[in-house]
Amino acid sequence: MKLQARIAGYRRLREQALWRLLAADHAPELIGLLQSLLQDGERRLPASALHERLQDHLDTINASELPTELPRTAQAYVAHWLAQGYLERRLPEGSSEEEYELSAQATQAVRFIAGLHSPRQAATESRLSLVIQQLVQLAEQTETDPTARLDSLLAERARLDAEIERVKSGKLDTVGGQRALERTREVIQLADELAEDFRRVREDFERLNREFRERIIDDEGQRGDLLDRLFEGVDVIAGSEAGRSFGAFWKLLNDVEQSNQLDAAMETVLSRGFSRRLQREERQLLRGFTRVMLERGGQVHDVMQHFARSLRGFVQSRGYLEQRRLNQLLKQAQAEALQLRDEVGAHRRLPRELPLTGARLRSPAQWRLHDPRQARVDGRIDLSGGAAISLDSVGELVAQSEINFRGLRRDLHELLREKPQLSIGEVLAARPAEQGLGSIIGYLSLATRHGVVAEGELEEVSWQGGDGQWRQARVPLVWFLREKRHEFA
């Protein structure tokens, strides 16, 4: 490639989102925010959640000792990132709120910087083994000579027989912990990159959808090949190169036998001792690899089906005729303008007047200002009926308090001598709550063990606190019976 062509290509790349993000003024902060928000955890976020989390991060950065200050609001940054191509925005079907995710180029930029921050070894044994294995398998599968293929299969069978004999004799060749950890991380890297490939597949489908619509509109003939195929019911998107590739991959991913085999292998690897040296994120990626692949593959499959249905509906509804007519008028106007460019100068006055569009202006004096005196506020105060205390919360409250249970038991033992049954309200009417709310909690605790609870019924109780103020609460209705008076002795 000539130097000029290479430089021109790099100039075009510099205008793309990946290079713009790496060359941004606050690139370290922007890349760190994008990675924390939309890559380390959830890959998609609703607009409200993204704005809220981003604003929290911005407040943390601006309050820290970092030399950089990010003065914009979260909404302003999201709008800027969307315009720069760092984010993609979609409205899921049936949803009332837009969702944001990283664009493919922003994802590549984040991965590139993360790789520089945590570089891998230049050459690893596992990567070399993978290259050798793939080359040997490719050479075998592309062999057209039956004799050579048969010799290769016989050699493989001899190797397997020798391996079987070694295993029977108790000799096992296992991979060491460091080599196993290295290979596992190579698999994790490939799996993570494979999951991100679905983004590019979805973009291919979007590009195909646009190209097909442009071909339909730009077709000058009566019925083009693409129109004929669509009217015949052919799914042109599924039949494209990207559609066939994804269809084969989707079929392989949904194979029950291979999915079970993959899950079993994942669980086996994670049960080995060397897997404890993996980071928590790496173990989570391995454990949820199949689920993530099916989820993202399902999203791409839905997108492909939606594009195919919308394209076929666009043709069958004859909406393309109106678009084609508009396209023809625009081309006709451009052609006539080109013919007249040598006859009519750019500064020549034309015998036609076009009214300028505008808006009616109003003076600020005509605006009616808001008068807060016109809005009346209801100043009445309603007394509360008292807070509700449930039996489920009594245990935790008792554990956090020092309650005089001996005095409460003594009061119940004495009062039950006079009455056959008592509720907490009747006890408080006869004996003051010396510990305030603590006494109420104590009576509820005793009621769960020695009283009878009236299901679904509440009782309003009142007591005077140490500050002289009367307080109220709604508590479950419980009864202390004389038959259990001896339990309080």
Low-confidence regions: none
Mean pLDDT across the residues is: 76
Largest sheet: 4 strands, mixed
What overall geometry do the principal axes of the alpha carbons give?
Answer: flat
N-C termini distance: 100 Å
Helix content: 55-70%
User: Pairing-aware structural class of the strands and helices?
Assistant: alpha+beta
| Helix run count | 19
* Portion in beta strands: 5-15%
Q: Using only CA atoms, what is the Rg? A: 38 Å
Tell how many strands the DSSP assignment holds: 7
> How many separate structural domains?
3
**SSE order in H/E notation?**
HHHEHHEEHHHHHHHHHHEHHEHHEE
Topology diagram in text:
Layout: H1 3-14, H2 17-22, H3 27-38, E1 45-46, H4 47-63, H5 74-84, E2 87-90, E3 99-102, H6 104-117, H7 125-141, H8 146-168, H9 177-218, H10 225-231, H11 241-253, H12 256-271, H13 280-287, H14 289-316, H15 319-340, E4 387-388, H16 394-399, H17 405-415, E5 421-422, H18 424-430, H19 437-450, E6 452-464, E7 470-481
Helix pairs in contact: 3-6, 9-14, 9-15, 11-14
